[in-house]
Design brief:
The protein has one domain: Class I glutamine amidotransferase (GATase) domain (Rossmann fold, 3-Layer(aba) Sandwich). It is about 35% helix and about 20% strand.
């Protein structure tokens, strides 16, 4: 069973975080929500989530994928935490799946993992990708090697399904898509 870590910081985007965790768990992925601090974390729209662990209690070696949700100021809190930057860089260097959505790809840029990689980000933030020498695209979900990026709250479902495909296989992702009726949407 694949294992994924989803970072959680104050000001996270609720739609993205909950969708990612839910879809991956439906796909049979063992998901750990890792907060910067223990106890409930409040999102950008006042939803509170209790993390499974803190990032001090997890190790890169124990996971196959690392996911950075967006949200403002959530992405800023993640990018300003050296533990997050170090984990993302180590995961990338270990050829693990590294993924981010909305403003989250700015964290990947800061970690130095986007150089020469096709990637996407929330509209209007493309300079964040260029700072890390990423190659901005406007697609809903962009995959380049072990990097997966997406645009924002409305793209959370196709993003999460792509992660499910990468971690659990195409058939499993298609089954989750059918069971959630995502397969009838056109994106």
């Amino acid at each position: 069973m694949a294992k994924a870590l989803v970072f959680l910081a104050s000001g996270f985007e609720e739609i993205e975080t909950v969708t990612i965790v839910d879809v991956l768990r439906r796909a049979g992925v063992d998901v750990t929500v890792a907060g910067l601090k223990p106890n409930a974390v409040e999102g950008a729209h006042a939803m509170k989530i209790v993390p499974d662990k803190t990032i001090d209690d997890v190790a890169v070696e124990d996971f196959d994928a690392f996911v950075v949700p967006g949200g403002n100021p959530g992405y800023k809190n993640l990018r300003n935490d050296q533990r997050v930057i170090d984990m993302v860089k180590k995961a990338f260097d270990s050829n693990k799946l590294v993924a981010a959505i909305c403003a989250g790809p700015a964290v990947l840029s800061d970690a130095g993992v986007l150089e020469g990689k096709a990637c996407t980000i929330y509209a209007g933030m493309e300079d964040e990708l260029r700072k890390g020498r990423g190659l901005p695209k406007e697609d809903i979900v962009v995959v380049d090697g072990n990097i997966v990026t997406s645009r924002g709250p409305a793209t959370a479902l196709p993003f999460a399904l792509k992660l499910a495909e990468k971690l659990a296989g195409k058939q499993v992702a298609e089954n989750v898509s059918k069971k959630t009726m995502a397969n009838i949407l056109r994106w």
